[in-house]
Design a protein that fits this description.
APC_YAT; Amino acid/polyamine transporter I; mainly alpha; amino acid transmembrane transporter activity; membrane
């Protein structure tokens, strides 16, 4: 399609101009549409290509072996595809900065929008602190002389500086880091192919041992359940596409393109990586028990070291470190926009909706920075680390809760369009799913099943006794979400839109 044709598609849509003020629900926000198509493409393409894929897969391999990993990551991959399809459809119709939070309040119940909004804010704020704590562990690959508080301070300074600049600097930073992560992923894939083809030394355990000699499910059903939260940690946070649509130049053009590229990302970067990992590294490898977050526990690094291939482990550590900064910057971006959206919807104080002339929600960014700093430094002490673990556990389930919300919202949106005889799906900018409501129903079922599996493994953990602490360290997000939704409904007396 030519640029002229694209322009004609969007000429009747008043929210496409670069730098234009974004109106959403009669709000006073002045978010500027400065994100270009390449920014949206690379932000979505490079999202979560970091410690979640490069390192945490080691824990998945240890507990689930090849079968558990393939099942869990395939389930989550299918859920991600369904999610992005549903989110793209509704985003093309209502591309607001509030995204699925606004959609949930508009089509289902304001209480649902408030509950998922606050839950997502807490989750993304703790993600910033989690990435800060990982920084020190990653740096130990080269040196152990740097004190932990100093590493965290430098890390937070970098993240805050990125967001103190105009929004286009954040977009360019995400674009460049995504390019680096994608390049590293392609290098690793070629290295895996080379090792399987005979490059490097022959390891003590032959390749493919997980498939030929190992037990199919060494930890039974629990092993599969244990892989689910790790898989969603690696592939979650796809909702950033909807949030970024509020600042995209042409969201109704950019969002479908980002969604169409999702299949390649899921197959090449996740599913193919899992196959290589399970072929190259036995699930019994003692190196998989390394420090959480350390590149030494990465299955990729273990495979490279077993094959005596130099340089790449250090390069991978550098890219993971860069990816951690990228993920934290994304988390701060999403958290600040969520707080701004909740303010514009009248669910939190109006002061959080203030935006400066360069399009930065400076009050929301300031509050998010303070909260993330608090979570980061309390993690340095034993008691504080336990408190932080409880808060950060919200992110373990919030992705599934957000995906459930999006599927329910999509069903309600379709009912509303049909009841009012609206012709919105006949517009040129519409992106209509074929086979609806299969996508929404399947996503509901998958998310419900995954939450049930996480609940089961939180009650019956592998190698541990059942305890309340163990349960809430995995499943705290669900009761928090329910309390927020019910509390807001009772306080405001909201109604379910039927």
């Amino acid at each position: 399609m030519t640029d002229t044709e694209k322009a004609s598609i969007h000429q009747d849509v008043p929210d496409k101009a670069e730098g234009e003020i974004l109106p959403a629900q009669a709000q006073t926000n002045e978010l500027h549409r400065t994100f270009k198509a390449r920014h949206i493409q690379m932000i979505c393409l490079g999202a979560n290509l970091s410690s979640g894929l490069f390192v945490s897969t080691g824990k998945s391999l240890k507990y689930g072996s090849a079968s558990g990993m393939l099942i869990a990551y395939t389930i989550v991959s299918i859920a991600v595809y369904l999610l992005m399809s549903l989110l793209t459809e509704i985003t093309c119709i209502w591309p607001t900065s509030s995204s699925f939070i606004d959609h949930a309040a508009r089509f289902v119940d304001p209480a649902l929008g408030f509950a998922i909004g606050i839950s997502e804010y807490l989750a993304y704020t703790t993600i910033i602190a989690s990435e800060a704590s990982i920084t020190r562990i990653l740096l130990t690959w080269w040196t152990t002389s740097l004190p932990t508080p100093a590493c965290m301070t430098i890390f937070l300074f970098i993240i805050f500086t990125i967001h103190a600049l105009p929004n286009r600097f954040f977009a360019e930073f995400e674009f460049l880091t995504a390019c680096a992560k994608v390049s590293m992923m392609l290098i690793l894939i070629f290295a895996c192919v080379a090792m399987l083809s005979g490059a490097g030394d022959t390891p003590d355990t032959p390749y493919g041992w997980n498939y030929t000699s190992a037990p199919t499910f060494p930890n039974g059903f629990k092993g599969v359940c244990e892989c689910i939260p790790l898989a969603v940690w690696a592939m979650g946070a796809q909702e950033i596409m909807g949030i970024s649509a509020g600042e995209a130049k042409m969201p109704r053009w950019d969002m479908p393109r980002a969604c169409r590229g999702l299949i390649v990302r899921l197959v090449v970067f996740y599913e193919l990586s899992i196959v290589f990992i399970t072929l190259l590294v036995p699930y019994t490898s003692p190196e998989l028990l390394g420090t959480s977050g350390s590149v030494a526990a990465s299955p990729f690094v273990i495979a490279l070291q077993n094959a005596k291939i130099p340089v790449l482990p250090s390069l991978l550590n550098a890219v993971i470190l860069l990816g951690v900064c990228s993920n934290a910057a994304e988390a701060m971006y999403v958290a600040s926009r969520i707080l701004t959206a909740l303010s514009s919807m009248g669910m939190v104080w109006p002061i959080f909706g203030r935006i400066d002339t360069r399009g930065r929600p400076y009050i929301s960014l300031l509050v998010t920075g303070i909260c993330s700093t608090l979570f980061t430094y309390i993690n340095c002490s034993g008691t504080g680390a336990q408190i932080f673990t409880w808060f950060s556990s919200i992110s373990s389930t919030v992705f599934f809760l957000a995906w459930l919300t999006i599927s329910i919202t999509n069903i309600q949106m379709r009912r509303a369009v049909r009841a009012q005889g609206d012709t919105v799906f006949e517009e040129r900018f519409a992106w209509r799913l074929r086979g609806w409501p299969v996508h929404a129903i399947c996503l509901l079922g998958l998310c419900g099943a995954c939450l049930g599996m996480m609940a089961y493994v939180s009650v019956r953990p592998i190698g541990k006794e059942t305890s309340a602490e163990g349960f809430f360290e995995v499943f705290l997000g669900v009761p928090v979400f329910v309390v927020l939704g019910v509390g807001y409904k009772l306080w405001k007396g909201t109604g379910w839109w039927m």
